[in-house]
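Annotators were shown the component list below and the corresponding predicted structure, then asked to write short factual statements about the assembly.
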Amino acid sequence: MTRYTRLAGLAVLLMLAAGALIFFYAPEDYLQKEPQRIFYLHVSAAIAAFACFAVVLGGSAVYLRTESARADRLARAAALVGVVLTTVTLVMGMLYAKPIWGTFWTWDARLTSTLVLWIIYAGYLLLRRLAEPGQQTARFAAVVGIFGFVDVPIVYFSVTWWRGHHPGPVIVSNALPPEMLFTFMVTMACTLFLAAVMVAIRYRIETLMDEAPSPASAHLVGAAAREPEPAR
Amino acid sequence: MSAIVAHELTQRYGSEVALDSVDLALDQGEHLAVLGDNGAGKTTLLRILATAARPTSGRLEIFGLDAVRERKALRARIGFVAHAPGLYPALSAVENLEFFCALHDVDRKRVPETLDLVGLTDVARRPAGRLSRGEQQRLAIGRAVLHGPRLLVLDEPDASLDSGGPDLLANVMRDRTVVLATHDHALANRLCQRTIVLRNGRSLGAGTRLRVVR
Amino acid sequence: MTRSISVAYAVARKDLTSEWRTRELVPALGQFVVLALVIANFGFQIDSRNATVIAPGVLWLALVFAGLVAFGRAFAAEREQASLEAMLLTPAPPAAIFAGKAIAAALLLIVCEMVLLPAMTLFFGTPLNPALIVAVLLATVGMAAVGCLFAAIVARVRSREVLLPLLTLPLWIPFIVAGGQAVQVAMGASGNYNQAVALLIDFDILFLVLTSLAARFVLDD
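Structure shown to annotators:
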């Protein structure tokens, strides 16, 4: 069992534990009833996604400074995980919105900027896929990653300004009973751990792909996953 | 005085290796011919020597300066005639050269001298898009020497030149260090004292005056 | 600094001269915007009552698509790549070269806007006043900077026609939100014009600074 498999197993167990808390420990919400349980994972995924994109920002900035291949690889890995988590956030958000607000979508600042975030980093991934791998592409992607990250708060601010003083529906009420708060904290911690494990695994995959010619890399990745890691 | 010192120059594009550990040394004033079939890596090597591309690994020093770190300073002393001319077709020959004078920050008085050197004085005012292939190539060569570079890198300049080509090249190459890629062995013999042969990205050997083999 | 300005000026002048002599882009863009207005008329059934409500949206749609074409072209053509490289092999600062190309592309788009705005007045009866023109010009500046930067990025990539809008539009959203508001007010809706314009200026400054910092990473090797 490689350490990646062990970490992945641990992450899954933690998520299951969080799930147990969500369904069996946290009380049912008085107003929103069962659908409210989506909120735990929805917000956790959003926070984890932002954390990933912050890592993309950091990796991109470091890459532009130092041209470190590792920084670039980290940015790549974090971007992929971030897009996955943002997709989860958006989908869960839509599932949550329908029973509560009566509509799947609304163009308030939070949803709009999350959607824009998704589009930006999907574009980042598409750019990396379509361009020849190499230093120049890495530099381009770093610029896109940095601009994208800066853009999101600006879009959020623009939409808030545009809507004047009619904010969208509030997702999180300020006073959470302690059981809910605890459940949320645990879920968020587990989700962040899961995100970190996914980034680490993806980083390893990217490292292997960088070091080997492309057709062989697929079988190399499989082989590496099967071989035991040297003891550390 | 050494002009170029290259050690284990390698260029990789993803999994493809265009240049594999090429070594090279050239003194000032020498002319080097780079020979090899299409796809051998001539263009890749020349682009690296002209600082138009960065090698994946290896060391390159031009006029004693590191070619990657000091490329800004080096570019003022290097003239490059690339595979594609990269001229502005809507602008006349004069306007093309004057534009590059502005970029190089050199006096516009050089333009008529350069046009004279490459034999384009008669067609100076014609839009570059309406010049013949040979004239366009001359203009590209003119642009490469406009700023008085000490090193000239020429990627198959003879390919589209007309009959006066070899003389023009000899003229332009005088008193400069030159790296010239070509298929034409006779031309290489005539213009260059040193040669290097590439195949599949590797150097088959460098030497003096290659005798025509095929 | 003066060197940068003279380089940017030389590059912009070169691009504009080329366009003037070949007249490829501006007539095509002009025809495109007029056609967009015709289609909008049928698509939205515009009449004198709803014109000022729908017109700002039509304006921005036309501007966005025209902008993508105009800025994309600044770096796109094959021969542009070879000549771009020739420019970069001189001591001229890459940020100045970029600025010159962005300025030229912006000016070409502005010429197109000088067709679009009167055409809208003609077809839909929307007002044409300095407030409207200022709003559109301010938005164009910022959009040009970002659009040209990403055009330079995607120039050598496959499927650049798809990738350019995907990368550029999220960054244009702030301009469209603020500019859209300004245009709506200029066309007669209620709202705060000055605030919208102030926001546009802020965005312009922010993105001009960011793109000038990023330009040398994107253009140079």
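Statements collected:
1. Residues 39-166+180-206 of chain A form one domain.
2. Confidence is low (pLDDT under 50) at residues 165-171, 216-232 of chain A.
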